[in-house]
């Protein structure tokens, strides 16, 4: 790889090579040479200004020219579009995608109807022809608010590749101008505080590099934040496959100082973007190249060397797009790296006690994030006490018990499993078989008649209390009782989960081995269509939307208002519409829904909101139903019920004697048990709405005393700290200032939050215990090979390809669109409304009996669960294929 390539490209830009000449004075307001000193941010946008800077430094950049913002403004003014564009844009709200999309449609239509002034079209055509006859070019948008240190605008604007001919270039330029006003660009600018009247658009036209390989260089490690490392992503073909996320690239990390390769991951590169006679397309990578490195070691070293020059030129870490053609490196874009993580040393997963094993199962599956300090110190001891009580009842005093604790603030169960303890555990199981059977038989009645009423009573005692008039210590005493009841509830329902598991397994075995013929439906059909708490909640919300649709003024307000704004209006005393009665009735019906279903948890940690106190996400789902998006849950359930009953009636008409009696027996048990798991899990947060109000009341008092910054920081305190503060508040003494300690805890939490916790510890022992491989029993895979495929558990059958929508929590629910594939760490009953929109489900954590599996099967969408890393490897908008039969997720197809 010759360094002289940079000098050649620099020379070409000043008239050597393809005969480019400097712009004439009359053209300079419309067209500029790529390296022109007049190519400022205001005239050529962020991308264009960056390219001009690199050309000026004699870095290897493909030849081309700028179409300035002056040309765009001429087009807007001569077509009288300015006022109409700003008027339409003013109707968009950044937190409401529907309003942004409506504004975009209006503006895009205006631009499409406009005509490019003839002198501008002639100048563009002449400058293109100087590049060469029918030479293929890339036509790229370059906005004045793009590629800045705090705002990359990455993925917001459009580029068009392999454009040939003057007329085609002119058409692509117009489409680039229109992309300034896509819904996502409008929303992005509003979130960044950029006014519509302050933006303009330039366009860069460059010769398209016929790339054998392409990719991205980060001159600081964007994963770890290490400033002394360069990360290179590389794949075959044009770079669009990487930028769009359709291929998992090779990843090479290089030490800046020594040039040594720190790590190299060669991915299985399934697709590549290639040139066609007209445009581009993605096609499969030849089989012989898929596992081959896209960059030779010498090429990677040269790429790193030149990239460091670009970093030096800009004086900061850079995100650089590159391509290689016939052994020569070209750079096609460079922008500052945004949102670099603070560098911290990697987390160590040290176990608290040698000889014990640590699992992320059971309740830990409902705690996907690092725990809040208050949940860890208040709730975990209650869970351990409740677990110990059940273990003693089941296996007798002195039995080995699981303890729930934290490692790097993630919840783990500790299981002491030395030889003596294991033998004692097995002996107790054998000796107390009758006790275990008796507990299992009465588990459902115990849950329904004792445990749930006790939990509900613990919460209801505080529901009508005047919290503001209650001493802080009394509030904490009530909070402790509610959490203790919640722990007892969760531990007790572990036995309730047995019948659904065993009955479905037994029915499936009997049906497939003894009953089923080739033409008969799958066993799953017989277990769908039943009511459960999440299904009832969805139908309730849908019914509310249908009622609101009949109130025209109310429906209009809900349709144009975000969920967050609707929630704020509900909390306000003002009436946002003229129809006072319909608004009050809407609030009453919503309150009834939240009172019945608002305790469903997104995350079991009570530091996280629930719909009852943060209904914005639920209201956004209601707006989707109002707009006719998502299938009618009543119709879906009726169809499943009809299919189930028809299948059962057909078999009962065919079977005789023992086979009929056996079929009816196992089917009846399975169908009676089917809703139990979801009903039981739906109430784990039954006390959370009132508990959160109680804790936030104490938090408000601490904030008023200057001990914390705001009431929600109460969840960042430890239980003992909160008790000390309550004593001080009740006694009228100053409470200790915890603000600096909370800031440190937040930083630690953020560092821990970005990692994927192992499902089994110690790491050195892998997934084997006592010689048995437990990997298939874990709720998430402990490792995934590099590449564009991920393995998981096929939890709902079928196969679907579509755009991914990665959702990290309820605040992002509004991003979900009909037909998207939902990608999440976990889903709980509170996530059920998204299933009405989803075409598939992928999770980091979960298995065949998790909420995701059960509800996905009810909705008839494919699901792959327990991948371990889906939310890290997949990004929103990326095309993925979910194979629920084989348990595979493929990215880029």
Explain how this protein is built.
- With 893 residues, this protein is an alpha+beta fold.
- It has 5 domains: 1-208, ATP-grasp fold, A domain (Dna Ligase, domain 1), CATH 3.30.1490; 209-343, D-amino Acid Aminotransferase, Chain A, domain 1 (2-Layer Sandwich); 350-496 and 674-772, no CATH class; 541-630, no CATH class; 779-891, Glucose Oxidase, domain 1, CATH 3.50.30.
- Helices cover 45% and strands 15% of the residues.
- It has 30 helices and 27 strands.
- The strands form 6 sheets. An 8-stranded mixed sheet has the order 20-27-26-22-23-24-25-21, covered by helices on one side. It has a 6-stranded antiparallel sheet with strand order 9-8-7-6-12-13.
Rg over alpha carbons: 31 Å
Instruction: Tell me the β content.
Output: 15-25%
The backbone outline, from C-alpha atoms, is globular
- Uncertain runs are 1-9, 11-26, 147-155
Give the number of DSSP strands.
Answer: 27
Q: Count of helical segments?
A: 30
Number of domains: 5
Largest sheet, described in full? 8 strands, mixed
């Amino acid at each position: 790889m010759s360094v002289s390539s940079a000098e050649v490209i620099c020379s070409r830009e000043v008239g050597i090579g393809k005969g480019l000449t400097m712009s004439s004075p009359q053209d300079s307001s419309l067209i500029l040479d790529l390296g022109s000193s007049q190519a400022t941010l205001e005239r050529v946008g962020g991308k264009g200004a960056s390219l001009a800077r690199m050309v000026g430094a004699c870095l290897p950049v493909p030849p081309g020219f700028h179409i300035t913002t002056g040309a765009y403004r001429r087009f807007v003014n001569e077509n009288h579009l300015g006022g109409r564009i700003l008027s339409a844009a003013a109707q968009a709200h950044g937190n409401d995608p529907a309003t942004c999309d409506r504004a975009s449609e209006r503006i895009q239509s205006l631009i499409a109807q406009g005509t490019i002034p003839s002198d501008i079209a002639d100048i563009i055509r002449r400058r293109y022809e100087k590049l060469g006859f029918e030479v293929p070019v890339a036509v790229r948008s370059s906005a004045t608010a793009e590629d800045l240190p705090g705002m990359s605008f990455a993925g917001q604007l459009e580029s068009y590749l392999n454009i040939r001919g003057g007329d085609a270039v002119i058409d692509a330029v117009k489409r680039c101008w229109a992309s300034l006003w896509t819904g996502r660009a409008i929303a992005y600018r509003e979130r960044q505080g950029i006014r519509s009247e302050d933006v303009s658009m330039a366009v860069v036209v460059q010769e398209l590099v016929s790339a054998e390989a392409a990719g991205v260089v980060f001159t600081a490690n964007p994963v770890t934040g290490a400033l002394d490392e360069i990360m290179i992503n590389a794949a075959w073909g044009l770079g669009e496959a990487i930028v769009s996320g359709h291929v998992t690239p090779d990843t090479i990390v290089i030490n800046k100082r020594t040039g040594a390769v720190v790590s190299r991951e060669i991915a299985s590169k399934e697709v590549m973007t290639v040139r066609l006679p007209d445009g581009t397309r993605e096609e499969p990578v030849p089989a012989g190249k898929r596992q081959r490195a896209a960059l030779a070691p010498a090429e990677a070293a040269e790429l790193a060397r030149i990239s460091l020059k670009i970093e030096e030129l800009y004086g900061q870490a850079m995100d650089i797009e590159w391509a290689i053609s016939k052994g020569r490196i070209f750079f096609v874009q460079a922008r500052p790296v945004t949102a670099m993580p603070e560098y911290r040393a990697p987390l160590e997963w040290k176990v608290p006690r040698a000889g014990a094993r640590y699992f992320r199962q059971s309740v830990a599956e409902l705690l996907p994030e690092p725990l809040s300090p208050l949940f860890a110190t208040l709730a975990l001891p209650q869970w351990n006490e409740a677990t110990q009580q059940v273990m003693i009842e089941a296996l007798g005093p002195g039995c080995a018990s699981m303890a729930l604790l934290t490692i790097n603030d993630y919840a783990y169960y500790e299981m002491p499993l030395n030889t003596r303890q294991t033998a004692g555990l097995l002996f107790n199981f054998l000796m107390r078989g009758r006790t275990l059977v008796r507990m299992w038989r009465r588990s459902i009645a115990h849950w329904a008649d004792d445990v749930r009423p006790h939990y509900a009573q613990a919460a209801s005692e505080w529901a009508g209390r005047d919290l503001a008039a209650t001493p802080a210590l009394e509030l904490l005493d009530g909070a402790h009782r509610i959490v203790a009841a919640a722990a007892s509830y969760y531990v007790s329902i572990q036995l309730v989960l047995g019948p659904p598991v065993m009955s479905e397994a037994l029915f499936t075995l009997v049906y497939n081995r003894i009953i089923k013929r080739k033409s008969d439906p799958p066993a799953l059909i017989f277990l769908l269509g039943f009511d459960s708490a999440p299904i009832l909640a969805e139908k309730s919300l849908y019914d509310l939307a249908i009622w609101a649709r009949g109130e025209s003024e109310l429906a209009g307000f809900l349709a144009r208002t975000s969920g967050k704004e609707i929630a704020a209006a509900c909390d306000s005393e003002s009436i946002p519409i003229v129809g006072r009665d319909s608004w009050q009735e809407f609030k009453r019906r919503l309150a009834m829904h939240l009172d019945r279903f608002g305790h469903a948890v997104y995350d079991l940690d009570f530091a996280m909101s629930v719909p009852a106190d943060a209904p914005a996400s639920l209201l956004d789902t209601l707006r989707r139903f109002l707009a006719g998006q998502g299938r009618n849950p009543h119709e879906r359930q009726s169809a499943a019920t009809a299919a189930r009953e028809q299948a059962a009636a057909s078999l009962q008409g065919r079977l005789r004697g023992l086979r009929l009696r056996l079929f009816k027996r196992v089917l009846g048990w399975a169908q009676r048990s089917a809703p139990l798991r979801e009903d039981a899990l739906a109430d784990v947060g039954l006390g959370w709405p009132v508990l959160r109000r109680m804790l936030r009341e104490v938090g408000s008092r601490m904030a008023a005393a200057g001990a914390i910054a705001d009431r929600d920081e109460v969840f960042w305190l430890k239980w003992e700290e909160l008790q000390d503060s309550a004593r001080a508040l009740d006694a009228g003494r100053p409470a200790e200032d915890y603000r600096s300690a909370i800031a440190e805890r937040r930083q630690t939490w953020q560092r821990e939050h970005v990692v994927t916790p192992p499902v089994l510890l110690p790491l050195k022992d892998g997934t084997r215990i006592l010689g048995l491989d437990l990997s298939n029993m874990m709720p998430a895979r402990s490792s995934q090979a590099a590449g564009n495929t991920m393995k998981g558990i096929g939890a709902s059958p079928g196969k679907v390809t579509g755009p991914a929508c990665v959702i990290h929590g309820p605040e992002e629910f509004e991003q979900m669109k009909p037909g998207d594939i939902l990608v999440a760490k976990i889903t709980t009953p509170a996530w059920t409304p998204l299933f009405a929109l989803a075409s598939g489900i992928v999770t980091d954590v979960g298995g065949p009996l998790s909420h995701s599996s059960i509800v996905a099967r009810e909705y008839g969408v494919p699901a792959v669960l327990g991948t371990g890393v889906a939310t890290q490897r997949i990004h929103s908008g990326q095309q993925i294929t979910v194979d629920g039969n084989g348990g595979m997720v493929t990215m880029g197809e």
